[in-house]
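Morning!

This is the sequence you dropped in the shared folder:
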Amino acid sequence: MPVEAALTFGQLFSWRDIERHPHDWIHEANLPAMWDLRGLTLDRVTAALSALVERHEALRTTYHVRDGVPYQRVHETVALPIELVERDGGDQQEAERTAAELIGRPFPMEADLNWRGLLVSVKGEPKFLALSISHLILDAWSVQHLRTQFRALVKDPGATAELGPVPRTLASSQRGQEWAARRTGAERHWRGVLEDGLMDELPTLPSRAYRNRLEATLHSRRIGGLAHAAAKRLGVTAPAVVMALVAAGVARQTGADRVTMSLMASNRFSAGNQRAVGTLNQLVPVVLPVDQGATLAEHVRGLHWAATKAYRHGSYDIDRMSEVAAEYGRPEHGCWFNHLLRCWFNYLQIDDKVADPADDSPAELVWTPLAQQYGQPFRVRVQVQRGRTSLLMLADPDVVPADGMLDILRGVGHGVQLAATGPEAGLKELWSGKELDPSLFPREADGPPR
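The structure's back. Tokens below.
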């Protein structure tokens, strides 16, 4: 018999996030995965996948709504949502085309397993497995855990793995007495942010509403290396260095002396949660003061410690915080998710490859033809993979126009270099107009094509 349970705080957060997506953008919640199957037999692959499904409740979970409240239903068994496809070729281009087709298909939020795959074979031999997994059930860390366990299972069908708490057990803990102090602490943190004031000048949208946005990505191999060098010198983390520079740029563009930034918390800091397979990520807001008279070192360290304190409260009941926020004034459009989490920052280290601070490969700036048209008015997503840092910035042009986005991205490039080599320089030096090395920012960087 299926077992019903409340959602974890991470599941509820993902639900509230995804339900605000316009219907033709809901596929944006899908996470892609591509697993190499060359050299394996079909029987070995399907046995490993079946073992993963039996092992992890998240892969056997559907979501449902009762009286407006979402809940989860864990099934004892499910059929593998994997389609077998025989094709003439199985090269990298074919794999990428298959993945793109799969990731573009949205999942219904209710009564669906929220994951599916295409297993491509050539002349009966498996070549690759393309997976699409909704953020409703898994986060990026969980997908990595599954991949590691899959590799172990295809080598040894009896392989075991150290497991974290299953979602329904975690949900029970989060809503029970053992989490009472943590829930109180999270509410106290939110009240502090609300009393300090959100960035009220940032316009937010109702659920499923569209607005033209701008989106650009700065690719640089050197920025990540310098961020790590600066972090080591200042006794902070590389994400904190980049976040502090982004916050300084937003303050400059908006004329503010503080920025309320929403930080992506993986909520895997405790040993018990590190191996949990589910969706744990949540955004946690923090008010970051920006003193233009401070040194770069003072600014980065101050924002690092403010963020560190906020991360302690990164797991919370978003519905409860919406109730708390109502005491401080309701947004006219009623979309609490957009209103409370307006300006967000996420830093994701995909692999263990260390970026080289001396790598002089030219940086590249790319404008997205169709930017995400809904949700928060400003966001930054940093992804570090294979030694390259990709810094994606999306902005409502009424908040930060195209030239302002370029100014912030230049500030990040200049800032990591200064923080690594001369952090006692004043924060205002970020905007000195100094020409940057092409490895940090392209010399010929234009705005979006018209």
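Headline: The mean pLDDT is 93.

More detail when I'm at my desk.
O.
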